[in-house]
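Bench log, entry 3. Co-assembly request; chain sequences pasted below exactly as received.
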Amino acid sequence: MTDTTREPDPTASAPKPLLSARKVRKSFGGVEVLKGISLDVAAGQVMCLLGPSGSGKSTFLRCINHLERIDGGRISVDGELVGYAARHGRIFEMNRREVARQRGGIGMVFQRFNLFPHMTALENITAAPIGVRGVPKPAALSRGRALLDRVGLADLAQSYPAQLSGGQQQRVAIARALAMDPKLLLFDEPTSALDPELVGDVLDVMRALAADGMTMVVVTHEIGFARGAADEVVFMDAGVVVESGPPASVLDNPQNPRTKAFLDSVM
Amino acid sequence: MPNLPLVRPGPTAPPAAVPAGSDPDDIDAVPLRHPWRWVIAMLLLVVFAAVAVSLWQNDNVNHPSISEFIFDRRILDGVVLTLVLTIVSMAVSTVFAVLLAVMRLSNNPVMNALSWLYIWGFRGTPLLIQIVFWGYLGLLYAQITLGIPFTDFSLFSVDTNTLIPAFTAGLLALTLNQAAYSAEIVRAGMLSVDEGQYEAAYSVGMSPTFTLFKVVLPQAMRVIIPPMGNETISMLKNTSLLSVIAVLEVYTVATQISSQNLRQVELLVVVSCWYLFLTSMLSIPQYYLERHYGRGNARTLPPTPLARVWAALRPTQRPTTNRADAP
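Structure output for the full assembly:
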């Protein structure tokens, strides 16, 4: 993998992006849902992906941590190709153990929370650090408690997911993702399954993370969150990036009629 | 509405005598009566009593020999062997079953086909035939040899009947057959786990194996345990089939005794009593396993049987008062 065409670009004064996607394509059963997505996210930046359902936002997010295998193009996180490894000048598909190691550095928060129902909140957070990274149990437990405190749930460490509200579950899920010290956090419509009055708590946690300098890619319908927290907003439709830029320009002064129509329908 | 005095008298408090502090909006109602339950219960008791008396007065049953043989040394040894066969074959077959289920659900086409073939073969032939097959394996292969196929090289060679005595043959037949059935139960349990659980586990860097043991199987257990309890009880009774290869479990022992003293009915009663006792005992660990793996699913766990007994013995709150939640 020699990227000699882009590397010595003299105008590239910006640091290398943490997430870089180039012409990513993905089809499901003959239907192409991603038709060449290219975008960059610099370290510490927050990118919000907006778009109507079926536009491919979630699929793209799942490609970033290799939950979906891409059919074309390339995605790299922190300079490392996702799902592939370069050895002896050739590119090899990673085996499942290598993919698992790589995913440990990319956290993900799901629309339906997907907490492990048979584990307490604290166990949900510490299972991977202890079992995957080999962190000693006392250290993992105190870190887990600190993370629960950070998402405002310090006193619910011993509760099972079924005993928590949706908003509390989603905050535990964020803490679980943070426990692996990810370089990048992916959010797949994190507030879409929540009752309206619980959305605020989750968004507050996400804003705090953004303020702390966490690199985040957020698929969301919360235009208010995108406006306040995003460094860049990308509008996707039908598998392509229609428009992108700072929230002020994309959200308040959209150039593309499709963006305009979408924003009119959600705001 | 018939107001039969069938429920326990209790404190029949007139509405005026509602204790101080009780909300006057609370309904003080007479609970729904169920007189037909009592009628049917009485009828059944009469039928049961009639059957019991006819059995007791039957001259063809020699009652003293039932009590003579129920704790007979040979019967007790048979009971122990039955229990050992059940527990060992269930334990080993469950390990095989998990392996077969994982193979069946894997993306590896070789493993997939192998598992399918195994389940097809062992589920598709009668257990009785499999027992006879393992019992008489010596007729098919007089010697069992470990070596390299299609060459003369052999590490060791042993007489089949020495390597596989009747007990081992029986254990092998029950275990291998049960593994095929249990594999489908385990597979059903694994399929019941939401796809999102795999994704969440993978997203925090868990490997497929770690995900299986820490995330998928513990959740699948909730679905697996009730049918596995069923299988355990089936297994306990299926051990009696080993009488065809003369394994000395409780049924074989009983038939041997009755062939000498001609008390067939009495010994079948003895054996049935033991089977009933053992199946009752086996449902206790199942209850506690279900409780264990049910944690996190119910907001409050159901009470243990002891807790239920305790609750039933304690006086309940005034049964005649129902709180009306809605106007």
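The first helix of chain B runs from residue 35 to 56. The beta strands of chain B are 27-28, 143-147, 154-159, 321-322.
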